[in-house]
Amino acid sequence: MSRTIAVKGVGSLRVKPDYVVIGLELEAKDEVYDRAMSLSSERIDELTKALKEVGFGKDELKTTGFHVRADYRSEQKDKGNYVQVFDGYVCHTSLKLSFDLEMQKLGETISAIGSCRGTPEMNISFTVKEPEAVNSRLLKAAADNARGKAEVLCAASNVHLGELQRIEYNWSETPAYSRTAVTADRLVMPMMKNAFRAEMSPEEIELSDSAAFIWEIC
C-alpha cells in the first residue's frame, strides 16, 4: 500500500469592497384590502421615481419578496379580558438596490430614499462585485498553502512529495461582506446627500477558506 500525506491548506485574503447592496423593507397598511395594495404600489412608484432622479433605471430596484397579512391588535374588554381586533391589511415588500461603490452616490441614494413617504427600513452592506474571482483567489491561496506545508513536512521527514491523490473540499459559499455598518435615523436620511466624503472607505473584507490535499510520498 502506498504511503500518503494529508495536509489542510488554508487560504486568507483581505479585499477592498467595491459594491454596495441596499436592502429595503416597505410596508403599507389600510383597513380595506384594495386600498392597502394601491398604497403599496404608490409607495414603490414614488421610491422608483426618487431613485431615477439620482441616476438609477427603473429596473435596478429589484423585488426580493412580497406578502400580505391581516393585522390585529389587542383590546381590553369588560372584566379585563383582552380580545384580538382586526386592524387592517399590511402589504410588505422586500427590495434590493445594488451598485458600484461610490461614497457620494451612496449619500445621494440614501437621501433619495429618505425623501419618500413611508420611508422604508434600510440595511446597507458593502461587498465585492465579482465574488467568483475572489473565491478563485482564495482557493489558489489554500492550495499554495497546503503544498508549502507538505513540502516542509516531507523535507523534515526525508521523504519526497509524489503525485496528488485526492482533494477534499466543502463547496459552501463564503460570504464576502465588510463589517462596516451604516445606519441613519429616518428624519436624518433626507439630509445625507453630502454625508460621505470621497476618501471614506469601508473596512476591508476578511475571508478564509480551506481544503484537504492528499499526496503520495516516496
Structure write-up:
With 218 residues, this protein is α+β, with helices and mostly antiparallel strands. The protein has one domain (14-131, 172-212): Alpha-Beta Plaits (2-Layer Sandwich), CATH 3.30.70. It is built from three helices and seven strands, in the order ββαββαβαββ. The protein has helices spanning 33-52, 103-114, 131-157, and strands at 3-15, 19-30, 61-76, 82-100, 121-127, 161-168, 205-217. The strands form two sheets. A four-stranded antiparallel beta sheet has the order 3-4-2-5, with helices on one face. It has a three-stranded antiparallel beta sheet with strand order 1-7-6. The protein is elongated and about 85 Å long. The model has no long low-confidence stretch (mean pLDDT 89).
Features:
7 strands; three-stranded antiparallel sheet; Alpha-Beta Plaits; 3 helices; four-stranded antiparallel sheet; single chain; alpha+beta
Compact summary:
The chain has 218 residues and is an alpha+beta fold.
Looking at CATH, the homologous superfamily is Protein of unknown function (DUF541), domain 2
Distance between the termini: 12 Å
CATH architecture: 2-Layer Sandwich
What is the rounded Rg?
26 Å
Order of helices and strands: EEHEEHEHEE
Strands of the biggest beta sheet: in what spatial order? 3-4-2-5
Proportion of residues in extended strands: 35-45%
Q: Largest sheet, described in full?
A: 4 strands, antiparallel
> Segments where pLDDT lies below 50 for 5+ residues?
none
Structural class: alpha+beta
Give the helix proportion (percent range). 25-40%
Mean pLDDT: 89
Integer count of domains: 1
